[in-house]
Amino acid sequence: MKKYLRYTDYIGAAQLYLKENFELREKLRPEHIKERILGHWGTVPGLNFIYANLNYLVWKHKCEMLLVTGPGHGAPAILANLFAEKTLGDFYPGFERDGKGMGRLIHDFSWPHTAFPSHVTPGVPGSILEGGELGYSLATAYGAVMDNPNLIAVAVVGDGEAETGPIAAAWHSNKFLNPKNSGAVLPIVHINGYKISNPTLFGRMDDKELRSLFVGYGYEPFIIEAPNLEMKMLVAMEKAYQIIRSIQKRSRKKAVLKPKWPVILLRSPKGWKGIQKFHGHSVEGSFHSHGVPVGHPKDDPAALKAIESWLKIYKVQELIDSKGRPKPEVVEFVVNGKLRIGMCAHAIGGNLVKNLKFPSLEKYALKFKKHGEIHSGSTPVGAKFLRDLVRLNPKNFRIFCPDELESNLLGAIFEATGRDFLWPLQKNDEHMQVGGRIVEILSEHSLQGWMMGYTLTGRFGFFPSYEAFLTIIASMLDQYAKFLKQSFKVKWRRPVPPLVYLLTSVGWRQDHNGYSHQNPSFVSNILEKHGEFCQIYYPPDANSFLVALEEVYKKRNYICAIVAGKRDVPQWLSLKEARSSFSVNPGAEN
Questions:
Q1: How many angstroms separate the CA atoms of 566 and 393, rounded?
Q2: Going by C-beta distance under 8 Å and a sequence separation of 6 or more, which residues neighbour residue 272?
Q3: Are 377 and 566 in contact, with CB atoms under 8 Å apart?
């Protein structure tokens, strides 16, 4: 494993600097250095270390594993490991695991018009998270394992990322994950102590404080730090795996409340095993290693010498053969075939989509002889359709809601299922059950992350909320839209189910809550996106609402928002008229 880490650490570091002389077979000269040096080093060695340990776990237990990386700008590490496990070459001809492929990866990283920038994108195999904005990794990982009983999603959370609001709320996801019908999340908090130029809060907490925090969240923490960090990590990973399987085994016989899932808290230096000092300041273990540790090597002979000395410590020529291929002992614990982390089938959720089974709308449609002669709200009628959608699709449809299902008059859904909850219940609780298809938490960030993970792994979600409050996750939706847009250019990405939102308690009906509950900007935000994959619906009555619900779930690669009310209004369109009023979008099935 130490040889493997030397190999991936070298590739990770070399990606920042080299455009030639990729195996350091000659003295490093200025012309070997890229004109513009881009990328980050600080998180790379820690991610390589985590990936190496995950490889060993998969190699030993033959388990299915998805990796979700939260730390920003960690792509050099992920790309190095995908290259080492041959996944990169399987997806991209020319990146085969030999000297030529290694050189091309090092050269093409953050190079103009190539596929690999400094953070993980849809073009990176094995990924379901666009890494441009911090805070969404943990919730996304939890969403990915819902209804995937054999999957372990490892969520690497950076200690800078851990300071964000979305991550802080997402730790409570463990209370909504049923081990009977879902997989497991193994969070690994990478505590390297610094952000761009500031210390991290987790980095300044002592072990007792960290342990107390995560015990309070309901986890069983394992703190990994020097000395003997490598051996401690191997032991902790094995213990964590055994705890996960034990919880699942017991829960699949009888419900286990308050399961104590493991979390690994890994302390390692920022820029670990890199340059120690340069120009009088520390680099390893400081914020100076966050991005490019040493700049301007083309112009500064001291910088060039420091980089050469750094790259030579990995002794890469000892690790490869005459054709640049890693020697067998370097990749001994790297699995082959479908179990490779980068080959996780769930990361390409479009290949796993099972179309929803729809009930007939005629069953729920309001019938009348004269326009406007009856009054009804839209949501109570749509709730009956959603109730039966849950019944017909018990393994690939979930409702994500911020404690507003009943207030939005969607209570009929409770006739089919309850709110999923894995902690003890009290006598005054209602509609709560272990394994329910509804997940309600007063954190829109967590709900959005869950739904993104659930959708990108091939399943269908529904997110109803008050119009004024969905703006909380507007930035998360922006990141998802970027992921979707980039996916269109990646030929091996297949279309995924739509993100579907219901906006209720609309601004012009806020006579009770007033000005504080008026904010239609979520719709404005969606309308600023590309019309090729975004659509807004304003059904005027209940039958139109039914038609909208049916139409959105037939779409793929879409973001859809339905704006509908819960208050009684005159009903105008018959079901047939409502159907004819909807213009058919040619891209609905694409």
A1: 25
A2: 45, 46, 49, 192, 284
A3: yes
Secondary structure of 412-445 in the HEC alphabet?
A: HHHHCCCEECCCCCCCCCCCEECCCCEEECCCHH
Look up residue 297 and give its two tokens: 């090597």
- DSSP labels for 96-151? -SSHHHHHHHHHHTT-TTSS--SS--TTSTT----TTSSS-HHHHHHHHHTT-TTE
Instruction: Give the DSSP per-residue string, 37-88.
Output: -----TTHHHHHHHHHHHHHHHHHH--EEEEEE-STT-HHHHHHHHHHTTHH
Residues 6+ apart with CB under 8 A from 208: none
> Which residue in 293, 310, 325 sits closest to 103, CA to CA?
325
Task: Specify the pLDDT at position 584.
Answer: 52
Residue with token string 């579907």 = 500
- Residue 432 has phi, psi (to 5 degrees) of -110, 140
Chain segment 10-44, per-residue pLDDT in tens:
999 999 999 999 999 999 999 999 999 888 898 99
In this structure, what is the dihedral angle of CA atoms 41, 66, 90, 311, given to the nearest 10 degrees?
20
> For residue 347, which of 144, 86, 541, 88 has the smallest C-alpha distance?
144
Give residues with Cβ within 8 angstroms of 584, minimum separation 6: none
The candidate with the shortest Cα–Cα distance to 523, out of 582, 477, 583, 462, is 477
Gap between the Cα atoms of 189 and 307, Å rounded: 29
Q: Name the helix (H) or strand (E) containing 231.
A: helix 229-251
| Average pLDDT of the segment spanning 310-334 | 96
- H or E stretch including 232? helix 229-251
Instruction: Give the chain's end-to-end CA distance (angstroms, integer).
Output: 44
d(CA 361, CA 128) in angstroms, rounded, equals 34
Cα–Cα separations (whole angstroms), residue 273 to 25, 51, 110, 231, 433: 21, 16, 22, 17, 49
The model carries a pTM of 0.95
In sequence order, what are the beta bridge partners of 433? 420
pLDDT tens column, 401-452 = 998 888 889 999 999 999 999 999 999 999 999 999 999 999 999 999 999 9
Q: What is the CA radius of gyration of the chain?
A: 26
pLDDT in tens, 561-587: 999 988 899 999 999 999 998 765 544
